[in-house]
């Protein structure tokens, strides 16, 4: 199905983000058992759970897809349920609540804390390190696909093409260090209990309401100067990220399988902002200059396994500019991609 030239509204956006590819349908057809999504209430969870539901239905597989979150956002629970996803309200750090969750053979782990981690370092480590250990003990007989982040890598020169999975970690700041801690905990329990795990180092998922290009488009539209210090970034369409995430169940392993999820291009902040300015009819102001390195990931391993993303970065940029020009809603969650000191 060809990509639309414009995305009219949130309903069309949500349909597109959750539309499974034939390969996802085949993967969900092979997967045995129900699926539980821990942290379904975040940026990625709703469309990922819906894709799992749609792909399972298209594969003719009768399974429960269960979404777990606190559901503090008004209307979120009702929307997810309308898509055929069962819901359970739970504070995951509450051990009793976690233990009451159903035993499910396939776990998607999305729970994390990033924004607001500065000043709440203890809670950040509890969410990003302690909770994964609790989940591994609860779901020691399951397969687990868990999100990590490209923040576990050190900054690298743009010309290198981004960090690869075999590079040594170099996290900066409590958030990034706690995310490496999350990986270490999943690795420990994968070995201890023989849990098949996949760790997905994501950098950065994009849709109309969230992403580095959304941040840039909002600043360009408002006439705010663009900080060039973090001069380069990666972008991947969230629908492609969702598809790769579900297909990762084919690759879970002990010790964990690790893969970067990132778009194929190293994008320049200056170039993207100038193009957004052209699309929005706005002059663009900059401050500072590009540092010699940036937080960049190489998605080549994922492309070899899953194919290249179906939505190119240029199309994402055009959609976002059009959405911004028409006053479309956002999640009001800046990525803080420009942060170089690890303080989120």
Q: H/E series, N to C?
A: HHEHEHEHEHEHEEHEEEHEEHEHH
CATH architecture: 3-Layer(aba) Sandwich
Largest sheet, described in full? 7 strands, parallel
| Helix content class | 25-40%
| Count of individual beta strands | 13
Task: Tell me the CATH superfamily.
Answer: NAD(P)-binding Rossmann-like Domain
Structural shape: globular
- CATH class bucket: Alpha Beta
Strand fraction band? 5-15%
Structural class category = alpha/beta
Mean pLDDT: 96
Q: What do we call the CATH topology?
A: Rossmann fold
Distance between the termini: 39 Å
| Strands in their spatial order, largest beta sheet | 3-2-1-4-5-6-11
Unreliable stretches: none
Number of helices: 12
Radius of gyration: 19 Å
As for the number of domains, it is: 1
Q: What report would you give on this structure?
A:
This protein has 344 residues and is an alpha/beta fold. The chain has one domain: Rossmann fold. It contains twelve helices and 13 strands. The strands form four sheets. A seven-stranded parallel beta sheet has the order 3-2-1-4-5-6-11, sandwiched between helices. It has a two-stranded parallel sheet with strand order 7-10. Strand 5, helix 7 and strand 6 form a beta-alpha-beta unit. The radius of gyration is 19 Å and the shape is globular. The model has no long low-confidence stretch (mean pLDDT 96).
Write the layout of secondary structure elements.
Blueprint lengths: L9 H8 L4 H9 L4 E4 L6 H14 L6 E5 L6 H7 L3 E4 L5 H6 L5 E4 L11 H18 L4 E7 L23 H21 L3 E6 L2 E2 L5 H11 L3 E2 L4 E2 L2 E2 H10 L9 E5 L5 E2 H12 L5 E2 L12 H7 L6 H13 L19
Parallel strand pairs: 1-2, 1-4, 2-3, 4-5, 5-6, 6-11, 7-10, 8-13
Antiparallel strand pairs: 9-12
């Amino acid at each position: 199905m060809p990509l639309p030239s414009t995305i009219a509204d949130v309903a069309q956006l949500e349909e597109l983000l959750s539309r499974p590819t034939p390969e996802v349908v085949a993967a969900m057809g092979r997967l045995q058992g129900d699926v539980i999504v821990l942290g379904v209430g975040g940026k990625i969870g709703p469309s990922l759970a819906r894709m799992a539901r749609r792909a399972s239905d298209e594969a003719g597989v009768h399974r429960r897809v269960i979404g777990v979150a606190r559901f503090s956002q008004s209307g979120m629970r009702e929307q997810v349920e309308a898509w055929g996803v069962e819901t359970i309200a739970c504070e995951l750090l509450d051990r009793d609540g976690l233990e009451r969750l159903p035993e499910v053979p396939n776990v998607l782990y999305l729970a994390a804390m990033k924004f607001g981690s500065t000043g709440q370092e203890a809670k950040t480590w509890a969410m990003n390190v302690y909770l994964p250990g609790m989940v591994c003990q609860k779901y020691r007989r399951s397969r687990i696909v868990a999100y990590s982040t490209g923040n576990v890598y050190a900054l690298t020169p743009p010309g290198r093409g981004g960090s690869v999975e075999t590079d040594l970690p170099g996290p900066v700041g409590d958030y990034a260090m706690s995310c490496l801690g999350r990986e270490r905990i999943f690795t420990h329990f994968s070995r201890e209990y023989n849990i098949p795990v996949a760790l997905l180092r994501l950098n950065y998922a994009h849709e109309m309401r969230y992403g580095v290009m959304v941040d840039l488009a909002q600043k360009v539209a408002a006439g705010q100067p663009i900080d060039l210090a973090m001069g380069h970034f990666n972008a991947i369409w969230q629908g492609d990220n969702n598809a790769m995430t579900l297909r990762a169940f084919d690759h879970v392993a002990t010790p964990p399988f690790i893969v970067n999820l990132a778009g194929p291009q190293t994008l320049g902040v200056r170039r993207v902002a100038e193009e957004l300015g052209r699309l929005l009819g706005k002059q663009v102001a900059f401050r500072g200059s590009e540092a010699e390195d940036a937080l960049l990931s190489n998605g080549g391993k994922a492309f070899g396994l899953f194919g290249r993303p179906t939505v190119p970065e240029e199309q994402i940029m055009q959609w976002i500019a059009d959405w911004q020009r028409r006053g479309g809603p956002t999640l009001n969650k800046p990525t803080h991609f420009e942060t170089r000191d690890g303080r989120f």
